[in-house]
Amino acid sequence: HWGYGKEDGPSAWHRHYPVAKGSRQSPIDIIPDEARRDSSLGPIFLKYDRCTSLSIANNGHSVVVEFDDSDDRSVIQGGPLDNPYRLKQFHFHWGGKGCEGSEHTVAGVGYASELHLVHWNAVKYTTYEDAATAPDGLAVLGIFLEQGDDHRWLHTITDVLYMVKFKGSATNFKGFNPKCLLPSNLHYWTYLGSLTTPPLHESVIWIVLKEPIVVSEKQLGMFRILQFSGEEEDQRMRMENNFRPPQPLKERILKKRC
Ligand SMILES: C[C@]12CCc3c(ccc4cc(OS(N)(=O)=O)ccc34)[C@H]1CC[C@@H]2OS(N)(=O)=O
Ligand SMILES: [Zn+2]
């Protein structure tokens, strides 16, 4: 199975998932000066008001908050998207210490962590799984986490991480609205990419916000109490550095709004 270690990490994923060397892989290094202005790109709209979070879980790769996606209560629309995409889950990627931990980098510089809000095109596809294999099936909103002061709302998540310490654990997590994790402005870069973990499907329209949110080292440290391993496994494996490094841009254009 795949992981983030020396033997099973990102450089080995291509053996079981050949698309790892594909033409639209994620993440990428974002070079702001090379982003092309696109007048057809409008602002993005996040309708998370009547949010319906259900649970928080440790899937052995990250900590994931799942949402009820049975209707269009929580959607992202506008920007590069032709229709609303339904919020399905969000999760994080983080490092072991200091500056690295995000998946996308900006002019070669990484952030301490990156939040991914995963949405799927329920207008064109009947299930999340079908959407996840289609070229316009998913829209993932990426938000950088920068180390600094305590984040006012992130403790709602870090306070319950001890309950999902081990792979395969999950617990109720209702009524959490991810709107509280957004930065003040929604200026973004966008490009066509992929899942950043196996199966690495090339099915993601990436929307990466320029402005990071600020979280404290203490809050980031809470993510590191999580384990890649299950409770029964004798090998304790701290969950950290669960990020894929930037992949070749190839024939893609990074876009931004005017
Ligand atoms: C659940 C699924 C497996 C993995 C997966 C899915 C969707 C979005 C994902 C986002 C990820 O993170 S990221 N960083 O945003 O790319 C990581 C993995 C993702 C679907 C794709 C097919 C699987 O569904 S299934 N039942 O096996 O067919
Ligand atoms: Zn992710």
What does this structure look like?
This protein is mostly beta strands. It has three helices and 15 strands. The strands form two sheets. Strands 2, 3, 4, 5, 6, 7, 9, 10, 11, 12, 13, 14 and 15 form a 13-stranded mixed sheet that branches. The structure holds the ligand C[C@]12CCc3c(ccc4cc(OS(N)(=O)=O)ccc34)[C@H]1CC[C@@H]2OS(N)(=O)=O and zinc ion. The site of ligand HZJ has 10 residues, from strand 9.
Which secondary-structure class do the elements indicate?
mainly beta
Q: Poorly predicted ranges (pLDDT <50, ≥5 residues)?
A: none
Strand content: 25-35%
The oligomerization state is: single chain
End-to-end span in angstroms?
Answer: 43 Å
Secondary structure: number of strands? 15
Total helical segments:
3
Bound molecules: the ligand C[C@]12CCc3c(ccc4cc(OS(N)(=O)=O)ccc34)[C@H]1CC[C@@H]2OS(N)(=O)=O, zinc ion
Order of helices and strands: EEEEEEEEEHEHEEEEHE
What value does the Rg take, in angstroms?
A: 17 Å
How would you describe the shape?
globular
Helix share, percent? under 10%
Overall pLDDT confidence? 97
Largest sheet, in brief, is: 13 strands, mixed
Write out key terms for the chains shown:
258 residues; binds zinc ion; mainly beta; globular; single chain; two-stranded parallel ribbon; 13-stranded mixed β-sheet; binds the ligand C[C@]12CCc3c(ccc4cc(OS(N)(=O)=O)ccc34)[C@H]1CC[C@@H]2OS(N)(=O)=O
